[in-house]
Amino acid sequence: MKRNCLALLFISALLPMAADASTTIPQPIQPVAIYIVPTSDGFQVSLMAAMQKKHVQVAISSDAIDAQYVLESSPVQVKTQSTGSKFARCLFADCIGIQDRSSVAVQLTNAKSKQIVWAYTVHKQRGGAMNDQSMAEAVAKHLKEFMQKHPLVPTAIPSQAALSGASGVPVTAAVDTQGKK
């Protein structure tokens, strides 16, 4: 019993030294600062909450000056179905798909170069406040996926020569416009 205790004590004393010598702790990646432009309908609050819920690796800035990227969204557009329209469709056809429809478009822009880095459109077929949350979570999910494939880094303002390729044709940014449910 004493041997086991001494062996455990000896091993536990050596483990920290072995860990320090053999491994280096990677420095955490600083998240990029994103400013979300306020909208007239308050959709930016849903976007902020969705980014936290989906663990998007960004720091949300309250000031556009401190941000490296700017996320702009259009106001949420809601197409409502009238009660008469819903009743007629249920009576003569099928009641499936008669809810209100909403859509929103967002674009992520580099704050210094003003180049659009990413854009996305969401269409949802639900009604009420749950629709805003669902659309914001879809935006956050796809932004996170985009950032995993194309990490966002702070960049300096590019020169005109850097913006054009060898043929003189402007280089375009990656744009994701898959408005899937």
Concise summary:
The protein has helices at residues 2-22, 43-53, 83-92, 129-149, 160-163; strands at residues 32-36, 58-61, 69-73, 77-79, 101-110, 116-124. It has 181 residues and is α/β, with parallel strands linked by helices.
Alpha plus pi helix count: 5
Q: How much of the polypeptide forms β-strand, as a percent range?
A: 15-25%
The CATH top-level class label of the domain at 29-151: Alpha Beta
| Amino-to-carboxy terminus distance | 62 Å
Q: What class, by secondary structure content?
A: alpha/beta
Number of strands: 6
What share of the residues lie within helices? 25-40%
Q: Describe it for me?
A:
With 181 residues, this protein is an alpha/beta fold. It has a domain at 29-151: Lipoprotein like domain (Double Stranded RNA Binding Domain). The protein is 37% helix and 20% strand. It is built from 5 helices and 6 strands. It has helices spanning 2-22, 43-53, 83-92, 129-149, 160-163, and strands at 32-36, 58-61, 69-73, 77-79, 101-110, 116-124. Strands 1, 2, 3, 4, 5 and 6 form a 6-stranded mixed sheet that branches. The longest helix has 21 residues, at 2-22. The radius of gyration is 25 Å and the shape is extended. The chain starts with a helix and ends in an 18-residue tail after the last helix. Mean pLDDT is 74; it is low at 156-175.
